[in-house]
Amino acid sequence: LVKKIKTLQVMIATLLGAITSIVSALFFLSIWIFLFSAIGMQFFSNLKDGEVIHGPWNFKTIINSMMLLFRISTGDGWFPLIYDASISEPSCTADFQLPACDASCDLECDPTATINIPGDCGQGMVAYAYFILFWFGCNFLFGPLFVATLIDYFFESQINENSIFNDDECAIFQEAWMEFDDNLSGKIAIENLRPLIERLMDLGSKVGFRVAPERDRYKKIWAKIMTDPINFPDQGLQVPEEWQESCGLEIINRETILKAFPNNNKSKSIRELVYAQTRVTQKEEVRFHYCAKILLIFKNDIKNPITSADLVNRGAAL
After folding, report:
1. Under 8 Å CB-to-CB from 164, ≥6 apart: which residues?
2. Distance (Å, rounded) from C-alpha 170 to C-alpha 314?
């Protein structure tokens, strides 16, 4: 079922890709909850039972505090909890003092000594500030961070799915390439460029095509491959005087290199000069990465201009 429904594949890829970021976001959220739980225990550990504060939902222990704060981080009982935490007299018992001893029974008793008995009232405006700050952090800081993580990975999965060189296309390109790259060097001979393109067509690739009816397109690709910027000088190759007659050129660049395309004496001379005067190596003219990029650029129905996602994503930049 997953293999047949592309949207489901995108959703699963989003979740799998976002796991690390989601765990990080949850980790920071747990620190936020733990911090406020410790603070809450100092202010609200003796609250009177109310609409939300009752049973295990209290600030008496760190675990109970974290459970309660996690509950209200979802929006459940958030505002009633503020009322419970800000309750005041006469609805609750305020702190009071009792004598530390009975002077009538204990001759050594200090009549001024007292014991503080904590009441069960709330903290008034402190409670409002505490819970509003906590809720603000959960809903306007960590909540959007969590959602933004999912959205980011969703769009990344969408780009992969919709781009020309997505995962499936890369697999096809690699499969076709391996049929010609026996040494696994990432380079093949220029003579294998046409068989590679037509093999891509046979495998269902979007960048493959039949060369015979699209000879002009193939020649442009051929010229780009032969003048790969890594191996061929950007300003072109100046032809030495002793070679100019045999080559019929004064300079070899991306336009004039096409004279080396036919199989005749001049084309052979041009190729020999290119191999001798540049870093272009015979039988290794076609590079894996650059070939993918050029085939993408010269795809017939590609959008104009080519988006950075098309060129950078997956096989186009590999």
Report:
1. 206, 207, 296, 299, 302, 310, 316
2. 7
How do residues 81-113 score in pLDDT, each as one tens digit? 888 888 888 888 887 677 667 666 766 777 677
Respond yes or no on whether the N-terminal peptide bond of residue 305 is cis (omega within 30° of 0).
yes
Q: Which two tokens stand for residue 8?
A: 């489901």
Q: How far is residue 194 from each of residues 61, 187, 200, 201, 313, measured CA to CA in Å? A: 73, 14, 10, 11, 25
Which two tokens mark 130?
């505490």
Cβ(92)–Cβ(121) under 8 Å? yes
| Closest by Cα among 309, 293, 273, 303 to 229 | 293
CA-based max dimension of the chain: 130
Q: 257-270 pLDDT, tens per residue?
A: 888 887 778 888 88
pTM: 0.53
CB 298 within 8 A of CB 221: yes
Angstrom distances, CA of residue 227 to CA of 48, 151, 191, 218, 317 = 81, 41, 15, 14, 18
Residue entry with tokens 């993918």: 292
Cβ atoms within 10 Å, residue 296: 22
pLDDT for residue 305 is more than 50: no
Distance CA 310, CA 313 (A): 6
